[in-house]
Design a protein that fits this description.
Layout: H1 8-19, H2 24-31, H3 35-45, E1 46-47, E2 50-51, H4 53-66, H5 69-73, H6 77-87, H7 92-102, H8 109-117
Helix pairs in contact: 1-2, 1-4, 2-3, 7-8
Length: 153
């Protein structure tokens, strides 16, 4: 089974096989997709109980265009809240976790890092991060706190 998005040809095949009365599992087998993906495609893109490939493609295109949390966050008041918390010394993981706990907003820490990377915040916020965006070189292991040449009992 492939892990690619449905193409317009796939959607037209789904429409044709649905008209012929095929079940999702048989449609999936014929177009080379997983049956749950076919079912999800039909449920997500059916309008008034009817699946139309052209409308499904349009819905897919608009969803694809609007996806991405960092795009939605541009010029958002949420960015100011994230900026303040970073200046206070919070990490993106703490900001995300606390926001979910109190129910104020739902944002992942990866999205916050992405916002920082794309420079969508007002200041250079990498300086506020604990490690300042630095990573250990590949293969470097932490050796502090270990006893060299220790013998296991």
């Amino acid at each position: 089974m492939s892990h690619k998005h449905f193409t317009i040809e796939d959607r037209e095949s789904i429409f044709k096989y649905l008209a012929l009365g095929f079940k999702n599992i048989e449609i999936a087998r014929r177009i080379g997709k997983d049956r749950s993906s076919v079912g999800r495609e039909i449920n997500r893109n059916s309008i008034d109980g009817e699946y139309r490939p052209n409308k499904a493609q349009i819905l897919y295109s608009t969803r694809k265009k609007n996806c991405g949390a960092s795009k939605k966050l541009e010029n958002s008041i949420l960015l100011l809240d994230i900026q303040d918390k970073l200046e206070e010394g919070w990490t993106p993981e703490q900001i995300s976790g606390r926001a979910k706990d109190i129910g104020s907003f739902n944002i992942s820490f990866k999205t916050i890092y992405l916002v920082i990377k794309k420079d969508l915040l007002l200041e250079d916020t990498v300086e506020f991060l604990p490690r300042k965006g630095k990573r250990k070189p590949n293969g470097a292991k932490e050796t502090r706190g270990t006893i060299p040449d220790k013998k296991m009992i």
